[in-house]
Design goal:
There is one protein chain. With 252 residues, this protein is mainly α. The protein is 69% helix and 0% strand. Helix 4 packs across helix 5, helix 5 (65-86) runs parallel beside helix 11 and helix 7 packs antiparallel against helix 8 (141-158). It is globular and about 60 Å long.
């Protein structure tokens, strides 16, 4: 089986290398991506349409709002699938946990824990910054969510998984992951109730004291918060199950 997998990997790799020669040169102004009228519209009109200086965020959360919402749904489904495969239930959950192979003391290292205790607030504050600042610089819900999820994983690595789960249990993580999707979809549905189309953020100007363009700006921050909820919690839930083989005890 390993030889078959290696052969398939080499074959696909060769196809990708063969296809790479058809790529346009880096920075070629005549490449399909650069010459496309869609790309020219994004470059010329994104700032006017959305009041968002960061074109990437505007494209992901506004022009490609459907795509990004379903990307978030895919992340949620992937997390649920991993939990369903690994989570020990019934007789498996009642069986003795696997013993550690090493004889290293289980007490957390004092230097590590105190260092992490100082780092966690900084990491989480930076996660909020990346989330909120994604409109004007690199960042957004996916990036901020990963950083926030990493802070909970760091707690589990420095102490143990139960210590991290005191702050964010797996059951609560799954619930919050669903809440993130509901926030995203809810903003879209609210736009429909105001007379627009699904994810037509501009309609929110009816209830916000801003222009149609700024309504899109503020709504994008809302959907980014929903994305961050899902990414943060699914990331931690996946780690919790992978690191304990679904037992949610001990950890690495």
């Amino acid at each position: 089986m390993k030889k078959v997998a290696l052969a398939v990997t080499l074959f696909i790799g060769a196809l990708l290398l063969y296809a790479a020669k058809d790529f346009s040169a880096w920075g070629d102004l005549q490449s399909p991506a650069s010459a496309s009228p869609v790309s020219k519209h994004f470059i010329a009109d994104t700032g006017v349409d959305t009041e968002v200086p960061n074109m990437v965020t505007a494209v992901l959360a506004d022009y490609r709002g459907f795509d990004t919402m379903f990307e978030t749904v895919v992340i949620f489904i992937a997390g649920i699938a991993i939990i369903a495969i690994l989570r020990c239930t019934g007789a498996d959950a009642d069986s003795p946990a696997l013993e550690r192979e090493s004889d290293v003391a289980t007490e957390p290292d004092l230097i590590v824990t105190n260092t992490v205790r100082l780092l966690i607030p900084v990491i989480q504050l930076f996660a909020f910054y990346v989330l909120a600042h994604g409109h004007v610089s690199p960042g957004g819900g996916f990036q901020g969510g990963v950083i926030m999820g990493a802070s909970f994983i760091l707690v589990a690595l420095a102490w143990d998984l139960p210590k991290a789960m005191d702050r964010l249990s797996v059951d609560r993580a799954v619930m919050l992951a669903g809440v993130g999707i509901l926030i995203y979809a809810g903003i879209g549905l609210f736009s429909m109730l105001l007379g627009g189309e699904f994810l037509d953020y501009a309609e929110l100007y009816h209830i916000l004291p801003v222009s149609r363009e700024m309504a899109r700006y503020h709504a994008m921050l809302g959907v980014e918060i929903g994305v961050a909820f899902t990414v943060t919690t699914v990331m931690f839930a996946i780690y919790a199950n992978l690191s304990t083989r679904g037992r949610l005890e001990g950890g690495l």
